[in-house]
Amino acid sequence: MGTIMDIQVEGTALPTSGSRMLKERINEYWSDGAEGYQKCIWNSIQPGMLKRRWQEIIREGVGNETAMVLDVGTGPGAVALLLADMGHSVIGLDRSEEMLKKARENAERLGLPVDFKQGDAESIPFEDESFDVVVNRDVLWTLPNPDAALREWKRVLRPSGRLVVVDGNWYININRSLKNRIWRGFALLLSSIRERRNALRRLAEPDWRRKLPMTFKMRPEYDVELLKGLGFTDITVRIIDRRSLGLSEYLRYGYFGNSFMIIAKKRNK
Questions:
Q1: Which of 104, 176, 212, 262 is the 20 to 30 A CA-CA neighbour of 70?
Q2: In which band, very low, low, confident or very high, does the pLDDT at 17 lie, cut at 50, 70 and 90?
Q3: CA-wise closest residue to 134 among 112, 155, 164
């Protein structure tokens, strides 16, 4: 397996102007929310049931063998840090410098060796076949060009490398019923109290979400078709029951419905 020092950066193409503007709006949204999101994920990287549960889920996707892993859209570094704690060599990539600042602070606080770099999920700044695994959580739906992102993730994977996508049907489930909309308000109030922040300011849905291709797709079925079209093999889907993550997580995020994990392999040469 490779090491972090073996990975070389290469040039990437610029996106279209329309896509660039949308990306900037999305980047501003996540950068403005970096502090709140940091509080949101902190329990998942602290010793306890939630951390163990996420590591069990991630291990199922990544496998037991020590690997060189790219965590795309790492945010405050939650998945990257869980992977590093499991013994993997990890690079975390994110477009937002505010998120990367939180990720580096978390890595230092936990004493975990993760290399965090700024970069675009749709135009990965690494050479072909650099990683054994590419993983991401709650990222694909936020991208203006998910098919371009998947091509890039495939490009940087080594032959027989694994792609692990964890995501959900976020906005479809929020608006599915009055119960879910009320539940969301209660959950944001609960998060505000628990995390000592004004989570209710996120009650209004961001206007850019309607411009994203994945927002209203039925997933993971749509993702599986994209992956098949790109030549990925051995595609499996696992539903992640939010109740299995504990009562607190279910109360705060259950209105989103269950998440899913897709595992796919790059075809061997």
A1: 212
A2: low
A3: 164
Evaluate whether 20 touches 142 at the Cβ level (below 8 Å): no
Using alpha carbons, select from 141, 131, 191 the residue that is nearest to residue 166: 141
**What DSSP state is assigned to residue 144?**
S
Bridge partners (DSSP) listed for residue 68: 89
Q: Each residue of 134-184: pLDDT tens digit?
A: 999 999 999 999 999 999 999 999 999 999 999 999 888 777 788 888 898
Quote the crossing angle between the two packed helices 97-110 and 17-32, to the nearest 10°: 40
DSSP codes joined into one string, 2-27? --GGG------PPPPHHHHHHHHHHH
Which residue bears the tokens 């994977």?
A: 157
Tokens of 214: 């994945």
pLDDT at 1: 47
Number of H helices, E strands in the chain: 10, 7
Q: Which of 82-91, 116-125, 198-207, 227-236 has the lowest mean pLDDT?
A: 198-207
Q: In the structure, what pLDDT confidence band is assigned to residue 16 with cuts at 50, 70 and 90?
A: low
Q: If we measure between CA atoms, which residue out of 31, 178, 177 comes closest to residue 99?
A: 31
Sorted by where each starts, the structural domains of the chain and their CATH numbers stand as: 15-167+218-243+260-265 (3.40.50.150)
Six-digit token pair at 63?
């496998």
CA pair distance 45, 76, nearest whole angstrom? 11
CA distances from 69 to 136, 171, 256 (A): 10, 29, 28
Tokens of 168: 């959900």
> Residue 206: pLDDT above 90?
no
Give phi and psi for 81, each to the nearest 5: -75, -35
Sole residue written with tokens 């308000």: 185
